[in-house]
């Protein structure tokens, strides 16, 4: 199994390292041709506006959207969640628009308002997980087909629709591999 990590901007190297620690191939995705040789894709955290602009400039936006809509398993963390959302609060347009959610950008505040919390998460496993929130978004609303996976302080911070998984937080910034293992299971079920 080969997992692609969008490597235009943001925290892609941490995701690559986590996938390799789980003994799977990881590939940095930088051009549209790279999409043809992967089984699933992680869209990392970073700056969603910059990533969206780079997707357009590299002519990757449409091919990426088509691959995801056709069923390619995709996981968006933080900015990746914003890129995947059908609606972005305060903006007239979206980027990929593949998951039926409305997100609020920087919902928890600025960089100085970043925080982490430990939480036991049923769909991940028995051990408490560290959740790192950095200028994080959360989901304001969603369509009927979207499965709510996790709330923190009443805010929806993880969800899934078909083969698309999104998290507001950054599992790649912890030593834990359980979220990456969960995404690998989504890819395995899809193939």
From TrEMBL:
Record-linked InterPro entries: Class_I_gatase-like, PdxT/SNO, PdxT/SNO_CS
Pathway: Cofactor biosynthesis; pyridoxal 5'-phosphate biosynthesis
Gene Ontology biological process terms, A to Z: L-glutamine catabolic process; pyridoxal phosphate biosynthetic process; pyridoxine metabolic process
Annotated Pfam families: SNO (PF01174)
UniProt KW keywords: Glutamine amidotransferase, Hydrolase, Lyase, Pyridoxal phosphate
Binding site residues for L-glutamine: 46-48, 105, 134-135
CDD domains: GATase1_PB
Catalytic activity: aldehydo-D-ribose 5-phosphate + D-glyceraldehyde 3-phosphate + L-glutamine = pyridoxal 5'-phosphate + L-glutamate + phosphate + 3 H2O + H(+); L-glutamine + H2O = L-glutamate + NH4(+)
GO cellular component terms given for this protein: cytosol; glutaminase complex
Single GO MF annotation: glutaminase activity
Active site annotation, chain numbering: 78 (nucleophile), 170 (charge relay system), 172 (charge relay system)
EC numbers, comma separated: 4.3.3.6, 3.5.1.2
Function description: Catalyzes the hydrolysis of glutamine to glutamate and ammonia as part of the biosynthesis of pyridoxal 5'-phosphate. The resulting ammonia molecule is channeled to the active site of PdxS.
Subunit structure: In the presence of PdxS, forms a dodecamer of heterodimers. Only shows activity in the heterodimer.
Family: Belongs to the glutaminase PdxT/SNO family.
Protein name: Pyridoxal 5'-phosphate synthase subunit PdxT
Species: Clostridium frigidicarnis
Gene from which the chain derives: pdxT
């Amino acid at each position: 199994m080969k997992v692609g990590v969008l490597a235009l901007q943001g925290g892609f190297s941490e995701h690559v390292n986590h996938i390799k620690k789980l003994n799977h191939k990881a590939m940095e995705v930088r051009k549209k041709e790279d999409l043809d040789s992967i089984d699933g894709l992680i869209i990392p955290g970073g700056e969603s506006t910059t990533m969206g602009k780079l997707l357009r400039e590299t002519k990757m936006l449409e091919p990426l959207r088509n691959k995801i809509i056709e069923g390619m398993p995709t996981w968006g963390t933080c900015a990746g969640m914003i890129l995947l959302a059908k609606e972005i609060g305060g903006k007239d347009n979206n980027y990929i628009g593949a998951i039926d959610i409305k997100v609020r950008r920087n919902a928890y505040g600025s960089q100085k308002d970043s925080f982490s919390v430990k939480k036991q998460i049923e769909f991940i496993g028995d051990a408490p997980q560290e959740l790192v929130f950095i200028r994080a978004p959360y989901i304001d609303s969603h369509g009927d087909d979207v499965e709510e996976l996790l709330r923190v302080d009443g805010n929806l911070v993880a969800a899934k629709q078909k083969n698309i998984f999104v998290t507001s937080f950054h599992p790649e910034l912890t030593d834990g591999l359980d979220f990456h293992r969960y995404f690998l299971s989504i890819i395995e079920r899809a193939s």
